[in-house]
Each structure stands twice: as C-alpha cells, then as structure tokens.
Amino acid sequence: MKVAVAGLGWWGKQIIRSLSASPKFTVVAAVDPFRPADADAFLKEAKVELAPDLAAVLARADIEGVILATPHSLHEEQVLAVLEADKQVFCEKPLAMSSDGARRMLDAARRKGRVLGMGHERRFEPAVAELMRMVRAGELGRLLHVEANVSHDLFRKLDASNWRLDQKHAPAGMMTAVGIHITDIFIALAGPAQSVRCTTDSMVFPAPAQDYITATIAFRSGVRGTVSFLSVTPFHGRIAVFGDKGWVELVSEGNVDQGLPTLFTHCIGTGMPRIHHSHPANDAVLLNFEAWSDAVTRGSAYPFTHSELLENIKLFEAIVVSGKTGGETVVIEEEAATG
User: Fold this and answer.
1) What is the pLDDT of residues 57-82, one digit of tens each?
2) Distances in whole angstroms, Cα of residue 206 to Cα of each of 199, 202, 250, 331
3) Using the 8-state DSSP alphabet, how is residue 92 labeled?
4) Residue whose C-alpha is closest to residue 281's, from 253, 259, 309, 248
5) Cβ atoms of residues 72 and 176 within 8 Å
6) Residue 238 class from Cβ within 10 Å (0-12 exposed, 13-18 middle, 19+ buried)?
7) How far apart are CA 165 and CA 180, in angstroms?
8) What is the pLDDT of residues 27-60, one digit of tens each?
9) pLDDT in tens, 261-309
10) Cα–Cα distances in Å, from 157 out to 132, 205, 291, 292?
11) Peptide bond into 94 cis (omega under 30)
C-alpha cells in the first residue's frame, strides 16, 4: 500500500521507521504544517518526500492511504477528509475527542467501505495477546476485576506550550496518550463500560496541565476496574486481570519503543506455584499496521470492531467529564440495539 504520513513529531517518525521494514507499505510522502527542525534530514534519510499540506496528499492518485499522527483534536476533521477523498485511513489514538465525533467517523468509514485503522498497538504485544487469549478461553474463569498503572516521566521534558499538555488536545492527563490503550484492552476483555468515577490533579505540573489521573470503572458485564496514570515518575507499566479461577499480571520493563521484555505471571490457585514467563518485545506497531493492510488488501478481519472503538471513546469522554467535576459518577449511555 502506498501511504502518506501526516505528522512528523516523535511518533510520526517512529511510524515511518517501522513501516520501512515491511514489504506491505511504501511511504511516499509526509506532511507536517509545523515542519520540525529535523524533518528535512529525517525525510532525506528515509527517502520520503515532504508534501506541502494534507490537501495536496489527498489530491494525489498514487497515494492509497493516509496515516494520521497528528494532534488529537484534529483527528475527526482529518479522518473525514481522508475518507471523503476515497482513501484508506489509519488514525493514531485517541480516535476522537467525543463519542459523537467517533460515531461520525465510524459511520463515514462504513459508508465509504473503508477499513479504519486504529493505533492501539498494545493488543499486538505478545504478553497482552496471550492475556487476551487466556481470558477469552476461560482459563481465568469468570472475569471479576481488571486494573492497571502505566506511568512515565517523558512529558516532564516538554515545554509547557506543547500540545500534549494542552487540555484542548489532551484532557485528563495521560489518558489520551497512555490510558486510552489500557481502556481499549479492558473493553475488549470486559465489554462496554457502564459508569466511571475519575479524579485528576496537577501534582507537579503547573495547572492547567494535569499529571495524575485515577478512575474506577463499572462494566456492563459486571466486571470492575481501576486505572491510574502519572506523568512524573520513571516508567512503570502494570496490567493485572483477576478471575475466579486465577489471575495474570503483566509488568512491562519499558515503553513500546524501547524493545524491552514484559514479565508475565499466572496464578492458578492458592498454594500453587506461580507460572512466570518473560515475553520478548516485538514491533507491535508494525504488526498493527500489517493487520490493517491485510484487512484493506485481502479482506482479512481487523481485530478492532467499530463497537469497541466507539465504546472506548465513550469511556474516554466520561472519564474527562468526571475528572472535570471532581470525581462525580458519570453513567455511560448504552447503545441502542440495531436490527
């Protein structure tokens, strides 16, 4: 697939590097209105041309798909523009800033017959894939509780004016950058959320930038969950899932781009020896893109359903609202059944 990448920040460059290893993609152009200082040198090395703007990319017949690694609040407008140009689109997380926006995007993708790619690469990590397999196979019994903390201090290096600290683009602290991956996994395992209570704070960052978030989630399936994220600590990554027949804990040693392993612990009963594995890192980013490519070119099933994508944004939206109200419970509306 011949694609263009919109956004040449840290993650946009990571995407281009990952795709260079795949025979399924050719990145022919990139676009970034802010044109970072190192953009020209990077694109020359990657052998990718710089397009003047997104409109120029959308007008090109040789470009089949567009990958968006742009500020979050631009996603809806840009996804709709790509779909209107009859091209395939892959959007980094979060899909949208509101559930209404997500519905418009998903409806447009359905109407145009396009596969909406989604940047939730964590499902493709070996440890997470094994956890999901075990839960779906019933190996933990009835699912009861899910919890996670994934925190790092990368945002402490950012200038206060950076869009990643701006409430318009990144409300509820690290929810948009990190938490949205976790809630994607939990919704895939436990189903849609029913309600949430969230607290956010500016413990180290100057307000209004937020560096702390914790949320308690009730899922419609009866599963309960808790998540917390800090933007000021050295990296910590933990996901734990509890059933009535056992539990699994994943502890990641580094962020997705660092190539470090994830420790996997499985408990099958009190007094029983715990089972430990170390899952090596893989290029989960590339695996996600290749799954999207296969869905586009071969009609293969893409693992993210429209329902899951929408429910994740509904939960994200409710977390933001609850955080702004100081922790009031927000009930998430159930989708009407369709025939």
Assistant:
1) 999 999 999 999 999 999 999 999 99
2) 17, 6, 32, 30
3) P
4) 259
5) yes
6) middle
7) 16
8) 999 999 877 888 889 999 999 999 999 999 999 9
9) 999 999 999 999 999 999 999 999 999 999 999 999 999 999 999 999 9
10) 34, 11, 33, 33
11) yes
Question: Whole-angstrom Cα distance, residue 288 to residue 6?
Answer: 18
| DSSP E strand boundaries for the chain | 2-6, 26-31, 49-50, 65-68, 88-91, 116-118, 143-151, 193-201, 212-219, 224-230, 236-243, 246-252, 262-267, 275-279, 330-331
The backbone torsions φ and ψ at residue 233, rounded to the nearest 5 degrees and listed phi first, read -110, 160
CB contact at 8 A, 260 and 253 = yes
Q: Which of 64, 59, 71, 62 is nearest to 6 (CA)?
A: 71
Q: What's the pLDDT at 257?
A: 76
337 confidence band (pLDDT: 50, 70, 90): low
CA 11 – CA 198 distance, rounded (Å):
28
Q: In this predicted model, what pLDDT tens digit does every residue of 213-265 receive, in sequence order?
A: 999 999 999 999 999 999 999 999 999 999 999 999 999 998 877 889 999 99
Q: How far apart are CA 13 and CA 9, in angstroms?
A: 6
**270: exposed, middle or buried (C-beta count within 10 Å: 0-12, 13-18, 19+)?**
exposed
Q: Which residue has the tokens 């808790």?
A: 226
Q: Which of 150, 148, 123 is nearest to 248 (CA)?
A: 148
Q: Tokens for 57?
A: 């990319």
**Distance (Å, whole) CA 12 – CA 29:** 12
